[in-house]
Each structure stands twice: as structure tokens, then as C-alpha cells.
Specification:
Elements (H helix, E strand, L loop, with lengths): L6 E5 L18 E5 L3 H15 L5 H10 L21 H4 L6 H4 L4 E2 L4 H11 L3 H8 L25 E6 L4 E10 L5 E8 L4 E6 L2 E4 L5 E10 L5 E10 L4 E10 L1
Parallel strand pairs: 4-11
Antiparallel strand pairs: 1-2, 3-5, 5-9, 6-8, 6-10, 7-9, 10-11
Helix pairs in contact: 1-2
Length: 253
């Protein structure tokens, strides 16, 4: 959920006098930098959201952090990769998290235990083994499993990954959003897509009469001359007060 490179974190200052330059006093502060520092940062953000919404599941909290993340830096420019190029979804995931915005995401994508069991089926595990792991004697793998194409698309996740999109063919992904904002809310979809990648969202509007209600939609991808390789973009739902961004990565073959 939280990849990170060169993430800074506070640390206890060193007490070793050899670490202090000659003529200088020991510092009262210290930092460490590393990939693993992303984990405690996001764990703290998740705990912050949980304190405001104790009834939310872990996947709802993850969704709130992902869909409210920003893809622009503090200067208003697109987040860059370490090469200086504009970062893609594979560089930065959903973007840089904002715990404050995550307190009021508007919509969330609740990933259930069944989603993860289906994931194991799509990956190639037999239904008998999944039943043993889950303890659910009545579980059956979904139709079409195993399937490398459905591993990432068949889960109600706040992002979309399409591992193979061939020319002249379409891939349709379904998602179900839950309203955690005000009642009588209407969300409209906008699309960010690179040239050559066709994308259609049905329906284009989601209407929620009450809080905690859900609405399903489909996103269909097609190649209309897109370059081979991964293409990146996002579907964003907005009611005027909330912006719910779900990034996607589509591999054109």
C-alpha cells in the first residue's frame, strides 16, 4: 500500500562522540532515511483516520488514504521520479497521502475477505486449498479462475490494473463504491487518459440516497493506437465537495 524511497523519519541522535564533527555540539535531533520508513508514516496516518472513524475497516481506511492522495508536490508541479520525469502510477502508487483529506473521502472502496479469496483462485490456488486456509467450507472459486488477467482486475480495490490490453479488444473492470459522506449525493466521473487509450465509464453518474449505500460502475478500456507498454491515468468521481481519484495502469500489448 505504501511504497516509498528516501523517506525521512525522526530518530534519536547518536551519543557517539565520534559522530560529532570537531568543534561542534551534539545535535538534539537526528533523521534516518530509507524505504522502510514509509510503513510507520502510513501506519500513523491510518491510526489517525481510525481515531476519527473507529467503525471503518482497514480497507476503507486504505481507500480513503489512496483516493485523496495528491499527484502534485508542494510547488503545484507534478510529482517527479528520481530521474526528474513526471512520476507514473508505478513510481508513486496513488500519490502522496494527505491524512487530513482522508478524514472525509466522500466514497470508499471496501475490499472484502471474499475479494482476497477470489484473488488466490485467480492466482492459481485450488478451491480446496482456499477453503482450508479460510475455514469457509462452502467457498467456491469464481468462474474463469485461474486467470492472470483477472488477478488485479477482479478485486474491489481503489485502483485498477489491467495486465494485458490487446489491440481491437476491450477489457471491462467493475468497482463498487460506498458513500461515507452526506446523503443525497451525486458523483460525476471525469477521466484522465493518454492519447490512443479509449476509456468509457458506465454509468457516468453515481447517485446515493443515504450514507453507507453502495453503487457499482464499470470502466471499459480499449486501444485506439496507443503505444505498447503501460499507460497511466485515473478516473475521478466528484460531487463538488469531494474528489475521489482511482488511478489505473493498463499494459497495451
Amino acid at each position: 500500500m505504501a511504497p516509498g524511497v528516501s523517506i525521512l523519519a525522526a530518530a534519536m541522535p547518536s551519543t557517539d562522540k565520534a559522530d560529532v564533527p570537531d568543534g561542534k555540539k551534539p545535535s538534539a535531533f537526528a533523521i534516518k532515511s530509507g524505504t522502510s520508513m514509509a510503513c510507520p508514516h502510513v501506519a500513523g496516518a491510518a491510526a489517525f483516520v481510525k481515531s476519527a472513524h473507529p467503525g471503518w475497516s482497514p480497507s476503507m481506511i486504505r481507500s480513503a488514504l489512496m483516493t485523496t492522495a495528491t499527484t502534485r508536490n508542494n510547488l503545484g508541479q507534478p510529482v517527479a521520479s528520481n530521474t526528474g520525469a513526471v512520476a507514473t502510477g508505478h513510481d508513486m502508487g496513488a500519490g502522496e497521502i494527505s491524512p487530513l483529506r482522508a478524514l472525509s473521502p466522500g466514497l470508499v472502496f471496501d475490499t472484502t475477505a471474499k475479494d482476497y479469496l477470489n484473488f488466490l483462485c485467480y492466482y492459481g490456488y485450488k478451491a480446496k486449498l482456499v477453503r482450508m486456509v479460510s475455514g469457509d467450507a462452502g467457498f467456491a472459486c469464481p468462474r474463469g479462475a485461474p486467470s492472470p488477467d483477472l488477478i488485479a482486475t477482479g478485486i474491489n480495490y481503489p485502483s485498477i490494473s489491467v495486465p494485458r490490453l490487446a489491440a481491437g479488444k476491450a477489457v471491462t473492470v467493475s468497482r463498487t463504491a460506498m458513500n461515507v459522506g452526506p446523503s443525497n449525493a451525486t458523483y460525476t466521473a471525469t477521466v484522465e487518459a493518454p492519447a490512443g487509450l479509449s476509456l468509457k465509464v458506465l454509468p457516468e453518474r453515481l447517485v446515493f440516497s443515504r450514507r453507507w449505500t453502495t453503487a457499482a460502475y464499470e470502466v471499459s478500456f480499449g486501444s485506439a493506437g496507443a503505444s505498447k507498454g503501460y499507460a497511466y491515468g485515473a478516473v475521478t468521481w466528484s460531487d463538488g465537495a469531494h474528489s475521489v481519484r482511482t488511478p489505473f495502469a493498463v499494459n497495451v500489448v
